[in-house]
Amino acid sequence: MRFSMLISLLRPIGPVIIGISLGFTLSLLSVSWVEESCDINAVGDEGIILSQDGSLKGARRPNSISPGNDDGEEEEEEEEDFQPRIIPYKPVKQTQPKKLFRAKYISTELGIRERLFVGILTSKNTINTLGVAVNRTISHHLDNVVFFTGTRSHKIPHGMMVVTHGDERLIWNMFQTIKYILEHYIAEYDWFYLAQDDTYTQADRIKALVEHLSMNRVLYMGSPEEFIGGEMQGRYCYGGFGYLLSRSLLLRLQPFLENCRNDILSARHDEWLGRCIIDYADTNCVEEFEGQNYYYYEMGKNSDPSKEDNVQFNNALTVHPVSDPEQMYRLHKHFTEIELQKTYEEIEKLQAEIKNVSVVAFEGNRSALWPLGINPPFEPKTRFEVLRWDYFTEDQVYSCIDGSPKCELRGIDKLDVADVIETAMGELNKKYKPVLHLKKQQLINGYRRFDPTRGMEYTLDLQLEVVNQKGHSRSITKRVHLVRPLSCIEIIPMPYVTEATRVHIILPVTLQDREHVQQFLEVYATNAFETSENAILTFLFIYDPIEAQQVNQNDIFASVKLQINAYEHRYPSVKIPWISVKSESPSQIKFMDIISKKHPVDTLFFIATVKTSINSEFLNRCRMNSINNWQVFFPIHFQYYNPDIAYHNQPLPNTLDLVKEAGHFDRSSFTEACFYNSDYMATRTRMSSDVQENEEILENLDIYDMFVKYSGLHVFRAVEPALHQKYSYEPCNPRLSEDVYQRCVQSTLDSLGSRSQLAMLMFEQEQGNST
């Protein structure tokens, strides 16, 4: 009875008791107990404060100190006796930061490889014939073509990269070729194509083939052949039709290449390579992989490509054997025509699709602009952006470069007009044949304009003679519209250059130039001396024979030399050398002959004038645009007009801006030039035979004409906004050639002022005379 009453009393508070018990249990379990005792107020390693008898008085809490006793007085004593521990600060030793290496090209840093490497196996006897023919037919389609030969002839063809192994043995050459590829190109390419120089390769098809193959496959692809004798199992790729080797295959073969050279005996280099790949890479030659086929065609002796009309020939990637260069070029012509026809068919197909889609467009067929597939015409936003139409006939053009209202149609413009008329007649006859036949009588009106979004547009009014099938004819006028679209932009690979090259500035100074030297030095000192520009200024003092005889008594350049000494004292780290020459008739080429001998072959020259304002921005472009053994740079400076004409009856501005009212880019001036000494010396050597026949050529030509006529370099000519030249009248040397003299006269006249400024000046003079 009592027990049941006790249970009834505890039942309501039972859950509370159980909850409190569990809470205490869990809290005790969560506390880290420390059993070992320590001195009073001692602080353990983990910051737990213990009483004298070792009992725990508090658990460790971060950044806090628990009291060690319940008594307040004892607590204060403990706090007074507490000694904090000071941890001394030990500064971290500053190590030299490791210099971060950055690759020259982003593709190297990201590990991006090129797709296809092409190697051509040639010989000393055929490199100048078949080797040159192969290079001319595939090099402009592929990124890298290397020719491998045993020994080379004395004359190496221009524009070909040739690797010589030093031995004519076929097996040795193949071994050295694979070894050379592994050492120099294995990290840069995914696929490697090898062929002989008597094999025609359709480069675009080889590129298309590797684009559809996985780069990580172990693949040996070509024309499979059985080994001679049949004892060796497997198949090798016949070298006459070329073969593809994957990067993964060559990497697998690399450790065993020496074993192949020592252990495998064969009479044929392609068979030797096949046995090596089969033995050590366990890979056979295949002509089909992942749905892609390696098509090839064996050509008969003295066969004519134009008469070969079968599917296997037209689909071939390679053709073998090719007997002579002429046959190689005929093959290239044939396959190029096939690819061109395929391109035209694809264009027509795309145009038909555009027409079909435009029917269901919002504006219907009006949404399909003519011609199909070409960008729409440029739409000007303001009247200043309206494109100008130029009027022309078959003989005259009414928009001239020099601003004349009419001039003769000649040169490339005449060829352009003739080509457009011929194209128009061909398209008209294609449209109306066989019902009508059209003959051109004359061009009545012609209009053309350049649209930067689509190309050159033409509108022609043609007077035609129309002849029907019955022979009746009549004269009609027909208007046609044509567009010469902009072709695909091609990125031309250029050699790597930097802005770290030192520029040697050559400044010719004559008697008439003395008054401009002070202004030149002030500007140059600000832009070069004070900024420590990597450039050396060299003065070239030009004396005539009479002045040269009196140089000890009366040096005409004494004041200039004093100015040079003053700047050398002002800037102790600067040295300004000078060279003195004597000449009756100043000639750029004669002066450069002297200067060239005094400098190393890798020197970068900039020929300046005393009126030129030089700054770092231009010098950097001089370095970037001048490429050794590749390109010379002739900048077009901004020539300021005569201030008396440009600012007639106006105050002169403090600073001259690059605006059309202040000056113009002088396209008739070729005085400034950037080029390397080695390029000058090579061009001068080619010129020597003509100089022996006519020495006056050194005085008649300038450096620009010399590079254009005698060098195979790119002559780069471009406007240079950072290169300015003050106005100063300078008479032209009549001993120059007719072209050079006329350029000088034209430059002098153009520098007077703009046509509108000259017209206003003449108008004011006429008004003054009339009154």
Automatic annotation (TrEMBL):
Major subcellular site: Golgi
Top EC class for this record: transferase
Region (Disordered): 54-84
MF (Gene Ontology): glucuronosyl-N-acetylgalactosaminyl-proteoglycan 4-beta-N-acetylgalactosaminyltransferase activity; N-acetylgalactosaminyl-proteoglycan 3-beta-glucuronosyltransferase activity
Keyword Transmembrane helix carried by entry: yes
GO cellular component, one term: Golgi cisterna membrane
EC id: 2.4.1.-
InterPro entries found in the cross-reference section: Chond_GalNAc, CS_glycosyltransferase
Keywords: Coiled coil, Glycoprotein, Golgi apparatus, Membrane, Signal-anchor, Transferase, Transmembrane, Transmembrane helix
Subcellular location per the Swiss-Prot or TrEMBL entry: Golgi apparatus, Golgi stack membrane
Membrane-topology annotation of the record: Single-pass type II membrane protein
Biased composition (Acidic residues): 70-81
Family per record: Belongs to the chondroitin N-acetylgalactosaminyltransferase family.
Coiled coil location: 333-360
Keyword Coiled coil: yes
The protein's name: Hexosyltransferase
